[in-house]
Write a structure and sequence with these properties.
Layout: H1 4-13, H2 21-36, H3 43-50, H4 58-62, H5 72-87, E1 93-103, E2 113-116, E3 128-141, E4 150-159, H6 166-180, E5 186-190, E6 205-210, H7 242-247, E7 253-259, E8 262-273, E9 283-289, E10 298-302, H8 309-318, H9 321-331, H10 345-367, H11 388-408, H12 416-426
Parallel strand pairs: 1-5, 5-6
Antiparallel strand pairs: 1-3, 2-3, 3-4, 6-10, 7-8, 8-9, 9-10
Length: 429
């Protein structure tokens, strides 16, 4: 049976072909140091954990982000193929799309700018912050223990001022994933900002998103009468605004669907409509209503007119996993902390932070998916599923145990003093 460190090394070893000969070793040491680091995730902070014996010159690690000869697109490509083969070997591949802001300080950071901070902004007040605006595509998977789904990053783009828009970058990423998975049907779920993807030339891709409440919708064009002069109609009669339409609906249908791992009941109404300002093709409108009347009506759409309402609601609710991905990447992995300012450094550092999130979950699930790898604390005995912090602690615990055994001998890992130290380091960040 492989030890945890050798399994971690073998997992990262699948990416060595993207690097030159010393680059692969530096990559393994650097990513391991990032996981074990208890300080800020700057190169200087990671270095003592990555290379404690000083095997490589410290300049090699400082050059790894901005100057080293490797391509992040190749790392994303290999990671996407591994994740899809492991978690989605058959059926439709569901992806979630969103953008996030990685806060930074310093005026000379390449690619940084003032962007709207979605976390601190409200409807009445828009707050801007300095940093990197990233568009991220995640693979939505259901973990073996059930519960809430996971969003594993498989692609990323940096949004720069006065260059390609967020929508254009999103189209690039989706098309790239389609090239990686040419035989697979793909669903992309995004919030209302990305609804315009429905009108983009994305073959074999289904878009699921919110629809504007003031959207101008039309019925399908009426059937053309034979031998009638003139150009055939492209749309039917104009429909009422969504809220007004929902107020007059009588034939609601009760359904049950999975909302982030929990079965809930909703009343739904579906209708095939046209949204000419976004897409020339018909879309399926889905209106969702809370039977208890406690929540406002929600309005969604999908470009797959055969898709069930339960699937649409489930896919969109599971999109929330990407928000948890952003939170854990920033808080648990410190992806905003690397201090790089020139060339490709800032973009690569941010991408590797997201990439590590997927790798940690992949390693954790591959160990023993049905074994409890997390500790139930006295103040949280009702806990039933692991969190990303549990996965990270489990990986650190194994890596520290192997490192201490290599430095002090096999007997050291059975010493109670080292057990206390390993447990403390496993939870340190």
């Amino acid at each position: 049976m492989h030890t945890i460190s050798s399994t971690w090394s073998e997992l990262l070893g699948q990416f060595f072909q993207m690097f030159t000969k010393p680059g692969g070793e530096i990559f393994l040491s650097f990513m391991t140091g990032w996981i074990l680091c208890t300080a800020r995730r700057t190169v200087t902070g990671i270095l003592p954990f990555a290379d404690p014996m000083g095997k490589h010159a410290h300049d090699a690690y400082h050059r790894f982000y901005p100057d080293a000869r490797w391509a992040m697109s190749q790392l994303w490509h290999t990671l996407a193929l591994i994740l899809v083969a492991r978690f989605c070997p058959q059926g439709v591949v569901t992806l979630a799309l969103d953008d996030t802001l990685f806060h930074h300080t310093g005026r000379k950071i390449n690619g940084a700018g003032y962007w709207r901070d979605a976390v601190r902004s409200t409807k009445k007040s828009i707050v801007c912050a300095w940093g990197l605006n990233l568009v991220v595509l995640t693979l939505q998977i259901q973990p073996p223990w059930g519960g809430e789904p996971l969003g594993l990053p498989i692609n990323m783009r940096l949004h720069r001022k006065k260059q390609k828009t967020l929508i254009e970058l999103a189209v690039e990423m989706i098309q790239q994933v389609c090239e990686w998975l040419p035989q697979r049907a793909i669903r992309v779920v995004g919030d209302g900002f990305y609804a315009t993807l429905a009108g983009k030339p994305l073959a074999n891709v289904t878009i699921i998103s919110r629809i504007r409440r003031d959207a101008r919708l039309y019925d399908l064009p009426p059937r053309r009468r034979t031998k009638r002069r003139g150009r055939p109609r492209t749309k039917g009669k104009k429909l009422a605004k969504l809220e007004k339409m929902a107020a007059h609906i009588q034939n609601w249908k009760a359904i049950m669907f999975s909302q982030r791992g929990t079965m809930v009941e909703r009343l739904v109404y579906t209708r095939i409509v046209l949204w000419p300002s976004v897409s020339r093709k018909p879309i399926q409108l889905v209106i969702s209503r809370d039977p208890q009347g406690k929540e406002k009506d929600d309005f969604f759409f999908t470009t797959d007119i055969e898709m069930s309402a339960a699937e649409v609601l489930s896919c969109y609710s599971d999109r929330w996993a990407i928000e948890d991905t952003f939170k854990q990447t920033k808080q648990s992995l410190g992806a905003q902390q690397p201090q790089n300012y020139k060339a490709k450094g800032p973009e690569r550092a941010a991408a590797l932070g997201l990439w590590l999130y997927s790798i940690v979950w992949l390693w954790y699930i591959n160990q023993k998916p049905h074994q409890q790898f997390y500790r139930v604390q006295p103040w949280y005995r009702q806990k039933s599923t692991p969190s990303f912090a549990d996965a990270l602690s489990c990986l650190r615990r194994g890596l520290w145990r192997e490192r201490i055994k290599a430095m002090f001998g096999n007997s050291s890992v059975h010493d109670n003093k080292f057990d206390f130290l390993i447990e403390a380091l496993a939870n340190a960040a």
